[in-house]
Amino acid sequence: MAKIKPFKGVRPPREMVTEVASRPYDVLNSEEARTEAEGNPKSLYHIIKPEIDFAPGTDEHNPCVYDRAVENFNAFQQKGWLVQDNEEHYYIYAQTMDGRTQYGIVVAANVEDYMTGRIKKHELTRRDKEEDRMKHVRINNANIEPVFFAFPDNPALEQIIKDVTAEAPEYDFVAPDGFGHHFWVIKDKATIAEITKLFSEIPYLYIADGHHRTAAAALVGNEKATQNPNHTGEEEYNFFLAVCFPASHLKIIDYNRVVKDLNGLSNEEFLAKLEKDFVVEAKGIDTYTPAALHNFSLYLNGQWYSLTAREGRYNDSDPIGVLDVTISSDLILRDILGIHDLRSDKRIDFVGGIRGLGELKRRVDSGEMAMALALYPVSMNQLMNIADTGNIMPPKTTWFEPKLRSGLVIHKLND
Known about the structure:
With about 425 residues, the chain is of the alpha+beta class.
């Protein structure tokens, strides 16, 4: 059962929140962060991407960069740009995109739950990325950025969310990307106790986004446990910062592919090979969006096509085999185009659906890419089924939007 606790959040004063809050560290590069933080000493980028305080080109993994992160974190607190709450709270964090709002409960999740599989994952992680975030957690002794979890819908927790958010929020703003961010502090002790109890009855939490941050946070907590001869399991380092959303609130959007060449085939030969496994329909010059599971959108030579996988080409009883990312990876990218490793092959690139299918068209029309393939999005039910069966999704399968804004609340490991 999921073990969570409230915590004394470190947060910006209300009037500073828009200056402090930032996009997550991993959705932009150093130069983009440098540009976004220009003229704003309060930007969280000075903590989560502190290489921006050095000359352009400075290696973000240089020890001096990690040292600057903790210097800046301390300075933010000394200057009152980040202030720790006096008591332990849960928080509600809501995001609005395209008129739709999703509500998450901000908690301190349990390291042991991750180590024992009660927090379930659906992606592989890379050790180098884990180690980078582990260094950042270690040196700051804090989870500066939250991870993004889902849990099975729970009517009682839904009612608590509804009751809390009926009041005026602590923070309420629209970020430069146009997404709305709303934040409430839960101060009522009975409500806090009820949230803890209700989560203790939920068997599993699911990592939606942030597998590397989750692994890093849990591994640092585990390190601290092994280094403490008086470890009890209740110390603050046994917990890490997470925002937990009811599964029905979340919407996974498409994660699409663009490929540099057709593996020596002409356009006509490529389309002919597709006919073996797909019903291919020309759709003309107007953008075609995949209509359902096992239907794909192909952009090639100025034209859009519908590809529908033929019966018998996939296994609906296999949680991995049924995925459109598996079907396209096996039958198109591997069998026709000779792309076997999505993680390392330089002939393929990936485009989050937030950029729209127009971005696929642009990259092909520019001559940079030869073809583009748009996929129907994975569902939350599919994601949880894969995690429940102990399977791992193929690379670049899910894209969640909006991303969690960093800097609304931070969790210290020693308080």
